[in-house]
Amino acid sequence: MRSIFSFGGGVALTLALLLACSDDSPGDADAASCNCEPPLTGRIVQVEGVRTDQTGSLVNAFANCAENARLLGGGCEVRGQNADTLVLNQSGINTNPLAFGCEWQNPASITVETTRAWAICLNP
Question: Would you state the CATH architecture of domain 44-122?
């Protein structure tokens, strides 16, 4: 007798939980009906900054993301006949959080033909 009451109480408790926690919303939620972020396609872009014919002990290049974008990363490159004599001094985010900058040490103060920095940006 006791087991019948225990079983019946368990069934009643289970039904009460199911009814209390049921989803009685008007329809299923999906991405089309929610206030979600747009897809990443077309939002991640690469921008670059190229400088040519620089001389002096330091040469540089900067790539800037658009306003309200988020800088994700970037890189540096130097091209030209004398590119092997340069030493990458620093690269990365500088004082501008939307820019990726690169700076090379130019010990012989030779003319550098092309320096390039690129940034990967996430647009809103």
Answer: Sandwich (2.60)
